[in-house]
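pasting for ref
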Amino acid sequence: MNRWFSMLAVALVLVFAAGDCRSENVFDLALKAQGGDAVAECSLGDCFRKGIGGVAKDPAKAVEWYTKAAEKGLAEAQFDLGWCYYYGEGIEQDQLKAVEWYRKAADQDLAHAQYALGGCYLKGTGVEKDPAKAVEWIHKAAEQELPEAQYLMGKCCELGEGVEKNFTQALEWYQKATEQGDASAEFCLASYYMKTDFSKGFELLQKVAARGQLEAQGTLGAYYLYGLDGIEKDPAKAAEWFTRSAEQNHPTSQVFLSGMYECGLGVEKDPAKADEWFRKAVERQGAAASQVGLGLFYLNLDDAKEKAKAIDWFAKAAEQGDADAQFNLGECFRKGEGVEKDAANAIEWYTMAAEQGYARAQFTLAACFILGEGVEKDPAEAIKWLTEAAEHGFAEAQFYLSQCYGNGEGVEKDLTKATEWLRKAADQGHEGAQKALEELEALKKNE
């Protein structure tokens, strides 16, 4: 009898805390939860965590109920408890425990837990970083049709995280996620189509941006700001899209919006707002990345005086050892953008970035050694940097390295290696490599 009154008391407390017709459901949940029903305990945890069902939001109380259900082995509760530990909601943040609970739920084949656990392995959060293991878990979730996992699988395939780079597979995963309404995957598809069918891609980009996808909004802003690919310049429209994206904490858009307020481009000049947006970007991505971003903003403007400002911003980041800034300084000195041409100086900056493993710098440095631009021609040094870039997954380097092996230029002729590198480049969507591979396979069939 006492136990029944205790259960009733808890239920009544929840009913009085509720202020609408849903209190009847909370009453039922409370009775079941007090009786030890794990599903009810988890659902009651949801009510307290989200403040739904007329119940006042109480994250700590949510953790109590999730723990009861999780300890009974309910996968959904184990995942929710892991989430609370991961973000420190209702309990002290503990990412080791988050991983522990995620794993318990993932082992029971819960897709959201598999995706979360994969994310931990990908970032090295609460567990030692292991991209290959990350992909294992993310793939399990993706196979269960979880759209965010399908999108992340696409990213892993595109970037070569935990798996060999394969742009064809990346597109397949993006397509699957897009069909389930994942806006980030749809943005990736839009980016692809803009290279192969610009009208189709740009139309898709506008659609995704209108849906609120922050990267699409930032990209659309750039198209209107610089008038890329024949799109008519419209600084005011660019500012509008950058603002939408920046308000969602997209750091690149925050940096570009800062530049627009500094210049009075598309908006009224406002140094205070420029500083505010730049500070926000620094909070999100750090000083060096924000300085590089502002450098790129100025570099692509038409005004020569504004372009010169890019050099100062790149230099600030380069002095901090930022490889992206070092590469961009090399580009500016080589091309004479914002500064007088100085090929030797360009080589110095390219080398700094290349030695940090920056693939584009490695590839460009190889080209300089082949052409003797800013440095004496040196085929062996060119092959060295071309190989470095190729091994870092740079498709253009893989394609040209295949040509070197195929023709015996700078290396001993090796058709097997030539085909291997050609296939790697083709798998990343390199059109020249794909065409060469098709021709090679056609020749084999005719032999």
